[in-house]
Request: fold
Amino acid sequence: MIIKMYNISCQLIKQETDRGGVMIIFLFLFLFIFILSFSVKAQNTSYNQWCNELQFARAINDKWAGELWLGGTFSSTDNESRVFKTNIQRYGFAWVHYYFPPRWKFSSSLAYYYNKNVPDIGQYYSPEYRLTLQANYFIHKTRYILSTRMRGEIRYMMNADSVFQVKYRYRQMLKFVKPINGKVLRKGVFYFITSEELCFKPNAKTTGVTFFDRNRFEIGGGYLITDDFQVELTYLNELLPRDDGNEIYNAVSLTITFNNLFSNLKKSLTSKSSKENQED
Reply:
């Protein structure tokens, strides 16, 4: 969907590259990350993780799009140091997006998480149903994208007593994407990506967790194999300040995205069949 977000807005906003603006953005991101990531000095527990995700996106029309995410996470735990020994999480998201030009995108999703032995939750089975409402605001230049994402989550999840509870969380993200060997995101282009996200839990102190839930810093890159097929590899550092000691997660994440997969396959098969008929 990065391609679609970029191309839709670039058709409406045509601006020249602002190199000074890029430097300011990098400086702002560095200060933001430095202050927030190291504001809490104690780092009591650390975990290593591997995350993988498949994204299937489809444009419905000029304003609407849909997505399906399927993913999972492997992690070290308190009882097992080997990352790939424990699959702690599997999930699925169904998204719908509405593009409100020139700078806004509004989205909503329903998700299911199969959680088991998740260090942050506890060493028990804790399935979760999640409703997400979010808005993205984009600041476009010719050679990069800066965006901010506002996300609210309603989480219906099982606790240690096998009782489902409703929990709320708010997430605020700042994200920067820059094509490296091209002006736009298209086939054959590498791109750099970094983001900083803060998460908050209202009334969290009543359950022994801080109101500031976590800080997530991500950095990495991606490559567009075709206009509709891209691969992204990033490193995620996640800090969770807790009353009884902080948790640090170091995760490597692989994301593979297909845009309009089935329609492209149909076109390819139709074209191949037509070519074979002509040769006959």
Notes: Residues 2-279 form a domain with the Porin fold (CATH 2.40.160.40). The two ends are 40 Å apart (CA to CA). The longest strand covers residues 164-179. Confidence is low (pLDDT under 50) at residues 1-21.
